[in-house]
């Protein structure tokens, strides 16, 4: 079958290699002789017209689209273009968006299937089923329409041993394209990327914590690649692709702390000399000082910690249950090791008061974080938080595409006041002279630092980046 996999162009600010689509390709190659093409609209920054030409030229049997929830509009636009340019092709949407909101995904008649959760096994089984004319009801992890109703086939089958999943198909993209500078897109999720030839790496899947605001893509069970498998990939990336930097994009890389330390030890022993970061946010209260020391020695220069709220009540409500006292100790220890430290914070949780929001801001200000991201809560459809708020009677109609805007206000504070507090938080955090000196010292890429200063100034005074 001819398969065209697409990542849409969107407002997502980073355009690293589309590692999810590359994992899908690597896995599908082991199952059948499919003809596969990847088109990354985000790195090419091409709109609908160019995507239409790509689809028309490819003449695919299958169009697979990956999308975050905030990219729903772009995914549906591509689905409609696909039906126009390749009417006989089956259109499949996967990723966080359909995983949390399959009903919304399938409200569009241009979408034939929504893949929920981890995609490799589901897509391979679906393709085999379509080729042989079998019933798609037997493929777990799917949603589709039948007779005007939604059919949900239940949970997907996931890979029990991640070492069995082939490495991403790096030959499917023009890798050099991801190393060229762009005026509008970062090349990694990490905003202060140090080396030009940087790519993402995944070493675990799944997260057991069940935070109510989060998408559940890879399940609640932590599954881990063996340290040997991870190191083998890193060596291959360095030797074959001349990679200089990686970013670990696991949900919780440090949950198995012994394994995390072993990977660091092996990176040191192999003398990989790779710079690396953790942009997705590590679990601060699951760190210890020894692991931080090992990370530093192995080449780590940037760690984000996902704090979310400085309120113990909110921590319990969202099922994160972070030990805030320990988190503060770990943040400060990391900063003392001259590792750039970022913190993720959110304002606007359900029934959150102004004093609780100020507690979150105060936590950030008192910490030794070098950077802080103050997001406004986005209760995406399909998440537990969305369902809880809807059941409590909140108006959940909103535009779920901007973490810096109020989509559906489920707090006790007005939208205007939340936006004002966010601007004040950025201003108070970044225009502290001591912190400014610390940021300059720990940011190796001074051009990236300048771009972030401009971005922060806009957030501080305008509340937005444009």
For this entry, give a set of tags.
single chain, 466 residues, alpha/beta, Rossmann fold, pyruvate-formate lyase- activating enzyme, seven-stranded mixed β-sheet, globular
Structural shape: globular
Low-pLDDT runs of 5+ residues are none
Q: At the fourth CATH level, what is the homologous superfamily of the largest domain?
A: tm_1862 like domain
- DSSP, total strands: 15
Beta strand %: 15-25%
Order of strands, widest sheet? 2-1-3-4-5-6-7
Q: Do you know the CATH topology of the largest domain?
A: pyruvate-formate lyase- activating enzyme
What is the name of the CATH architecture of the largest domain? Alpha-Beta Horseshoe
**How many domains make up the 3D coordinates?**
2
Distance between the termini: 43 Å
- As a percent range, the share of helical residues equals 25-40%
Please tell me about this protein's structure.
By secondary structure, this protein is of the alpha/beta class. The protein folds into two domains: 2-152, 3-Layer(aba) Sandwich (Rossmann fold); 188-461, pyruvate-formate lyase- activating enzyme (Alpha-Beta Horseshoe). Helix content is 39%, strand content 17%. The strands form three sheets. A seven-stranded mixed sheet has the order 2-1-3-4-5-6-7, with helices on both faces. It has a six-stranded parallel sheet with strand order 8-11-12-13-14-15. Strands 9-10 form a two-stranded antiparallel sheet. Helix 13 (354-366) packs parallel to helix 15. It starts with a strand and ends in a 5-residue tail after the last helix. The mean pLDDT is 93.
